[in-house]
Amino acid sequence: MKLFKEKTDLTSALFLNKGPCLHLNNIRMFPKPIQKFIEIFSKLPSIGQRQATRLAFYLARQPELNRNLDEGLKSLLQGLKICRQCYLPFEKNGSDLCPICSNPQRKNNIICLVEKEIDAFSIEKMRQFKGTYHILGNLIDPADPKSYESLKIELLEGRIKKLANKIAEEIIIALNPTTDGDLTAMYLERRLKNLTKKITRLGRGLPTGGELEFADDETIRGAFEGRH
């Protein structure tokens, strides 16, 4: 019983930041390969230092999984390309355009703006949207003036000006209904109003604070049909 309590205390100190004996802000006690793994993986979305530490020690005990992971990462890096028009990743096929942008049956004058790549794929699951996409990459952060510059808006404007009439038929702002999402949407409306006949936003089928990535098909379909 005493041994179990000591192990529990050690785990709490390591993974829950409790107790003075171990702290995740000081990982120099770990082997250097573990330190390097934690340093890299803790920068990934939704993976902090605590989760990266757990993952490092788990993978250290799984040599076969490590080999599969190595192959998966190589495939991800070597087999993908970023579309030069919408910035959606796609499997390399000798083209600079993804299958959506290169599809002649898609309407390139209807452009749906999304924050993340996964949002575009969530919309594609409906099999109803016939336009194209523009991946913003992030949302505006009021505390970070540089966030305005990272939305690739100049590239989108240049893309629209290359259309037949130099104006889009419709721009759909499909951002998550969060504070930053609403702020970004208002900025985009002002910035793009002279480059499109119509700007619409998703209907409120999505709950406030919700994310496209986790919405079911019916919710996304309702939000698209109710756009205004």
Task: Give structural notes.
The chain has 228 residues and is α/β, with parallel strands linked by helices. It folds into two domains: 2-61, Helicase, Ruva Protein, domain 3, CATH 1.10.8; 95-225, Dna Topoisomerase Vi A Subunit, Chain: A, domain 2 (3-Layer(aba) Sandwich). The chain has helices at residues 2-15, 32-41, 49-60, 63-79, 117-124, 153-161, 179-192, 217-225, and strands at 80-82, 89-91, 110-114, 132-135, 170-173, 199-201. A four-stranded parallel sheet has the order 4-3-5-6. The chain has a two-stranded antiparallel sheet with strand order 1-2. α7 (179-192) links the parallel β5 (170-173) and β6 (199-201). The longest helix is centred in the N-terminal third of the chain and has 17 residues, at 63-79. It starts with a helix and ends with a helix. Residues 1-22 have low confidence and may be disordered.
